[in-house]
Amino acid sequence: MIIRKAVPDEAENLLKLLNSVDGSNFMLYGPGERKTSIEEQSDRIKRLNDDERSEAFVADHNGELDGYLLIIGNMPQRIRHTIYLVVGVSERSRGKGIGTMLFEAMEKWAKQHKIHRMELTVLAHNLAALSLYRKMGFEIEGTKRDSLYMDGKYVDEYYMSKLLLRDPNPTGIARKF
């Protein structure tokens, strides 16, 4: 298993993986809801790879994609230090350390790019993902109540983050609370 940067030529395989992970019913898109074309997916990979604040990582097992971690960066100066993450692992490969490897590759990338804040959202009832994110140092910041409507009911999401390169007082000014 290797973790590497996605390439536009594998858009079809990545799209199949995205659709498969959507079938878990733990993602923003529900099963069969994603309508992205291969060309659109290829363009998305290219845009992520061309943006210095973004990246698309995949877990490659002998040419078969088993997981992905998309890093979505920000351009406005005030939030340039922040990245948003989207991660998924194929059902057959869950529990085998692929999520951990993807997060380790992402964190190495984040440190190289001087990222300070990493954030993601997760369904409150997705206990396996919550366990992984906590293991990787993410903390729940809050609950997005009734964030999604799934299977005839509203469900909550947790907003989670992890801070890197932490400077407790970047301005050097004494703070009083």
Secondary-structure-derived class: alpha+beta
Distance between the termini: 49 Å
SSE string, helix = H, strand = E?
Answer: EHHEEEHEHEE
Could you tell me the CATH topology label: Aminopeptidase
- Total individual domains: 1
CATH architecture label? 3-Layer(aba) Sandwich
Task: Report the total helices.
Answer: 4
Largest sheet: 7 strands, mixed
- What's the CATH C level? Alpha Beta
Instruction: Please state the CA-atom Rg, rounded to the nearest Å.
Output: 17 Å
Looking at CATH, the homologous superfamily is: Gcn5-related N-acetyltransferase (GNAT)
Helices, strands, pairings?
Blueprint: E1 2-5, H1 11-22, H2 38-50, E2 55-61, E3 64-73, E4 82-89, H3 98-112, E5 117-123, H4 127-135, E6 139-150, E7 153-163
Parallel strand pairs: 4-5
Antiparallel strand pairs: 1-2, 2-3, 3-4, 5-7, 6-7
Architecture overview:
With 177 residues, the protein is an alpha+beta fold. It has a single domain, classed as 3-Layer(aba) Sandwich (Aminopeptidase), CATH 3.40.630.30. The protein is 28% helix and 33% strand. It has 4 helices and 7 strands. The chain has helices at 11-22, 38-50, 98-112, 127-135, and strands spanning 2-5, 55-61, 64-73, 82-89, 117-123, 139-150, 153-163. It has a 7-stranded mixed beta sheet with strand order 1-2-3-4-5-7-6, with helices on both faces. A hairpin with a 2-residue loop joins strand 2 (55-61) and strand 3 (64-73). Helix 1 packs across helix 2. The protein is globular.
